[in-house]
Specification:
- There is one protein chain.
- The chain is of the alpha+beta class.
- Helices cover about 45% and strands about 15% of the residues.
- It has 15 helices and 14 strands.
- The strands form five sheets. It has a five-stranded antiparallel beta sheet. The protein has a three-stranded antiparallel beta sheet with strand order 3-2-9. Strands 1-14 form a two-stranded antiparallel sheet.
- Strand 2 and strand 3 form a beta hairpin.
- It is flat and about 145 Å long.
Length: about 575
C-alpha cells in the first residue's frame, strides 16, 4: 500500500477512536489479572497503588502459571525450540546440507540467548495470556556503525493499533509512545533520512514535556519494491518490502521514513475477534467469575472485621458516656443486661465453598488445571507416566494457542535469520543448495514435539497390531510372517529422525548406509562361498578316497568353475 503522513495519521485516528471500548475492557482485565499493566483509561502516577481492586490473588496467580508454562514449552531457555530446514526434503538427505542447517540453528539460538529475548518474551506472554493480544519488535543493534547483536522490545498493548489485510493478517501496525524531546533527539538526531527540523527542541523550563510518537510499519505495493530485496541484497530503504514511518503526532510532522526487509513488529492474537482486529483471551472469558469472587471477598473481609471486633448493642442512654471496648477499660452502664455484643450471623462455610467453586472455574478457563495436572495428585508416578501426562497437557494447550506459532514464533525465527544473514553472521551456504532455495522452520519446542509425537504413537499402534496378527498366524516365528513385508524399517527410522529432530552429526547419510549395506552383503556372500567351498572340499575328499585321485580333482575343478573362481 502507499502511505503518506496525512493518510497514516488518519488511519491512526480511526483506530484510536475504535480502541476506546477495548481500553475499558482491557483496564478491567489489568485490574484483576495484570495490575502492573493498568493505565488504559489514564496514565497512573509513578508509585501509585495498582492493586486496590484486588481482593483475591487468583487472577495474577493464573496469569503467572499460564505465561510461564507457555514460555517453557514454546521458547524455553537453554533448549533448541526451532530448527532451520528446507522445503525440498531431498536436500535434507544430503549430509553436508543437514549439518549446515543445524549449524545455522545453533548460531541463531546462541544469538537469541545473548540478547534480551527471554526477558522481553516473559512480558510478551503475560500480555498474550491476559489480553489476548501481544506485540514484539525486533531490530539489530549497532555500535560504531557495526552490527552488535539483536534487540527485542515487548510493546505494551495500550500503545498498539492494527489493521488486517484480506487474509486476516495484521500487516499494518502502529505503536504509540510518549517521549521527551531529549529522548527523541538521542534516538533520531544524526540518523540517515531524519528531518532534523521535525525534531522537538529541548525545553529548559519544562524538560519533562512529553511528545506523542507513532511508529508505523506497513507493506509496500509490489510496484514500489526492488526484487533484489528478496535476495537480501542491499537496496534503497524506500524500495524495501515493508515501509517504516516515525511520526511526531503531537506536532503532526514526519521524523523519519525508511523500510525493512521483513516486518520488524509482530502482533499475535490468542483468539480473533469477529468484529475487530484485537485478540481475545481466556482471561476475558474468566472476568465474570473473577469480578464476583473479588466482590465476595470484599464483603467477606468486612464480615471478618465484624466478627473479630464485634459491634455492641445497648439500650438508649444505658451507657454513661461512650462505650470503651479496649483491653482493661471500664464502661459504666445503668443496666448491665442491656449491653452485649451483636452477632451478625455470618456463615463463613458458605463463602468458603462458593469461593473455592469460583477459583476452580477460573483455573479451568485459564488452563491451570491442565498445566498442573501432570504433578497434581500426591500418588507416586513413574517417569513414563509423568512424561505422558505432560505430553497430553501440551497437546491440549497447543491447540488453544496455535496462532502463537504462526504469528510470533515463525516471525521471530525468520527475522533473526534475515538479520544475521545480512550481517554475515552465518556460515557459507553449501554448493548443493544452489542459488534459490526455500527455507522451512522446524518447531522443536516441547509443545511442538508433543504434538508431532502423535505420528510415532500411530506407528506404535500399527506395529502392535501387526505383531498380534503375526503371532496368531506364525506363533513359532512371528518375525518371519509375510505381514512384515508391508513395514519399511527405513521409513520408520526416517519418521523417528524427523519427529525427534535427531542431530545430523550422529546419523549417517543414505549414501553411507547404502555403502555399508553393500559391504555387509558382499561379506555375507564371501562367507557363504567359503562355507560352500569347505563343504565341497569335504565332498572332494570323500570322492577321492572312494574313486581315485583323478576323479576327486575333476570334481574339485567342476565346483570351482561353478563358484566362478
Amino acid at each position: 500500500m502507499k502511505l503518506d503522513l496525512e493518510t497514516a495519521i488518519h488511519y491512526f485516528d480511526t483506530l484510536d477512536s475504535d480502541a476506546e471500548n477495548f481500553n475499558t475492557m482491557y483496564e478491567d482485565v489489568a485490574r484483576y489479572f495484570l495490575p502492573q499493566r493498568s493505565g488504559f483509561l489514564g496514565k497512573k502516577s509513578a508509585g501509585e497503588e495498582k492493586t486496590d481492586y484486588l481482593m483475591d490473588s487468583i487472577g495474577p496467580e493464573t496469569i503467572e502459571d499460564l505465561s510461564n508454562y507457555i514460555a517453557s514449552v514454546t521458547t524455553p531457555a537453554g533448549v533448541d525450540w526451532f530448527g532451520v530446514s528446507f522445503r525440498d526434503k531431498k536436500l535434507m538427505k544430503v549430509k553436508r546440507v543437514k549439518e549446515w542447517s543445524q549449524e545455522v540453528t545453533r548460531l541463531m539460538h546462541q544469538e537469541i540467548s545473548e540478547s534480551n529475548f527471554e526477558a522481553e518474551a516473559s512480558e510478551y506472554y503475560k500480555d498474550y495470556s491476559g489480553f489476548g493480544t501481544a506485540s514484539m519488535r525486533c531490530t539489530a543493534k549497532t555500535s560504531r556503525g557495526e552490527y552488535a547483536g539483536l534487540s527485542f522490545k515487548s510493546e505494551y498493548l495500550r500503545g498498539i493499533r492494527g489493521m488486517e489485510n484480506q487474509y486476516g493478517e495484521l500487516d499494518l501496525t502502529f505503536f504509540e509512545s510518549a517521549m521527551t524531546a531529549k529522548a527523541i533527539q538521542q534516538q533520531f538526531a544524526g540518523q540517515e533520512g531524519v528531518d532534523e527540523t521535525s525534531l522537538p527542541v529541548h525545553d529548559d523550563e519544562n524538560p519533562q514535556k512529553m511528545y506523542q510518537i507513532l511508529h508505523c510499519i506497513y507493506p509496500r505495493d509490489d510496484a514500489d519494491i526492488d526484487e533484489a530485496a528478496y535476495g537480501f541484497e542491499d537496496v534503497a530503504s524506500d524500495a524495501l518490502p515493508f515501509g517504516s514511518m516515525w511520526i511526531n503526532y503531537t506536532e503532526k510532522s514526519l521524523i523519519k521514513e525508511s523500510g525493512y526487509y521483513e516486518p520488524a513488529r509482530s502482533v499475535a492474537r490468542w483468539y480473533r475477534n469477529a468484529d475487530a482486529w484485537n485478540g481475545y483471551s481466556p482471561a476475558l472469558l474468566a472476568m465474570p467469575d473473577v469480578r464476583e469472587l473479588n466482590a465476595m471477598k470484599r464483603l467477606e473481609k468486612v464480615a471478618v472485621e465484624k466478627n473479630i471486633d464485634k459491634p455492641i448493642l445497648t439500650e438508649s442512654n444505658n451507657a454513661q458516656g461512650d462505650i470503651n471496648s479496649g483491653a482493661g477499660k471500664i464502661t459504666t452502664v445503668d443496666n448491665i443486661n442491656g449491653t452485649r455484643y451483636w452477632d451478625n450471623g455470618t456463615d463463613f462455610n458458605v463463602t468458603m465453598f462458593k469461593a473455592d467453586e469460583m477459583r476452580q472455574a477460573i483455573r479451568m478457563i485459564m488452563f491451570t488445571d491442565i498445566i498442573r495436572e501432570p504433578l497434581g495428585d500426591s500418588g507416586q508416578k513413574t517417569a513414563f507416566e509423568i512424561a505422558k501426562r505432560m505430553e497430553r497437557a501440551n497437546r491440549l494447550l497447543g491447540q488453544a494457542m496455535s496462532r502463537l506459532r504462526t504469528e510470533f514464533v515463525s516471525w521471530t525465527v525468520l527475522r533473526v535469520f534475515s538479520i544475521m544473514y545480512r550481517n554475515n553472521r552465518l556460515p557459507e551456504i553449501p554448493e548443493e543448495l544452489g542459488d534459490s532455495v526455500e527455507l522451512d522452520i522446524r518447531y522443536t519446542s516441547p509443545i511442538a514435539i508433543s504434538q508431532s509425537s502423535a505420528k510415532l504413537d500411530n506407528i506404535d499402534m500399527l506395529v502392535s497390531r501387526m505383531l498380534q496378527i503375526a503371532s496368531a498366524r506364525t506363533p513359532q516365528n512371528p518375525g518371519a510372517d509375510p505381514i512384515w513385508d508391508y513395514f519399511s524399517e527405513d521409513g520408520w527410522m526416517a519418521e523417528v529422525q524427523d519427529v525427534q529432530n535427531t542431530p545430523a552429526t550422529i546419523i549417517r547419510s543414505e549414501k553411507e548406509v547404502e555403502g555399508m549395506r553393500q559391504e555387509r552383503q558382499q561379506a555375507e556372500q564371501q562367507a557363504n562361498q567359503m562355507a560352500m567351498a569347505e563343504q565341497a572340499a569335504g565332498v572332494v575328499r570323500n570322492i577321492g578316497a572312494g574313486a581315485g585321485e583323478k576323479a576327486g580333482q575333476e570334481a574339485q575343478a567342476a565346483i570351482k568353475q561353478g563358484m566362478g573362481q
